[in-house]
Amino acid sequence: MTELPAGGPAPFSGFGLGLRPDHYAEVLRRDAVADFFEVISENFMVDGGRPLNLLDRVRERYPLALHGVSMSLGGKSLDPDYLRRLKALSDRVRPLWLSDHLCWTGSGGINSHDLLPLPLTQEALERVAANIHHAQEVLEQPLLIENPSSYITYPEDSLTEWQFLTQLCARTGCGLLLDVNNIYVSAHNHGFDARAYLDGIPFDRVRQIHLAGHTVGDGLLIDTHDQPVPEGVWSLYAETVKRCDTVAVMIERDDDIPPLDDLLAELAVARRLAVPELA
């Protein structure tokens, strides 16, 4: 059995961005744009060609984190080919860490391309923990697990999401990627106190924070990642970062991508809130 570090990947302190095609050329042209970049793993899980060439060039200049969207940790079992290709990418990039979501994404070989919510039950906890153990064995490193945004709950739920995540950390040695926007969205949608969520999280396991925007729907907040970080999320982030020791903070934007300098201005806000002496 592979011996994995206790408590998740090694801590890293810095402020980064999600690497998106709109900014590839500028990131490679400019110096010291950010402390690190995060890339969507599935976009680079290929055998060769331009995507990997680009990633190699960025990796020469910046630390990278790999963020997955379809491992489907809540599914019945993990796809061995997916894990094989992710392991090959990880071996090539040697990322700060690998992360994915507390969710399932499909069944029977069908990928829904959505991050589907899990029932928060002991049965689901056992299944997710087993899948995390298996993934970490294959990948030879601990994972970071991200809290999702959600819009429904299940009648059989017996745990809060923060209790579920806390038990996953204890059972598997994984770390956490804490998405502050997702906490804010889910708290609004389900009527719980976002600060109670923070009170229940083991912050010694938090290695990364995501910041993003959302859209106001008909009675719900929708995690669209196509808006600037709103004031409510900034306020919750300020509470969150007080509880962290060494952590990586990232602005996540997936649609309606603005100029790079706009995102860097948001990242400067994140830095000032985390390090008040810079204000």
From TrEMBL:
It comes from the Bacteria. Keywords: Isomerase. Coiled coil: none annotated. InterPro entries: MbnB/TglH/ChrH, Xyl_isomerase-like_sf. Pfam families: MbnB_TglH_ChrH. GO terms for molecular function: isomerase activity. Belongs to the UPF0276 family. PANTHER family: UPF0276 PROTEIN HI_1600 (PTHR42194:SF1). This is UPF0276 protein ABI_22150. It comes from Asticcacaulis biprosthecium C19. The lineage of its organism: Bacteria, Pseudomonadati, Pseudomonadota, Alphaproteobacteria, Caulobacterales.
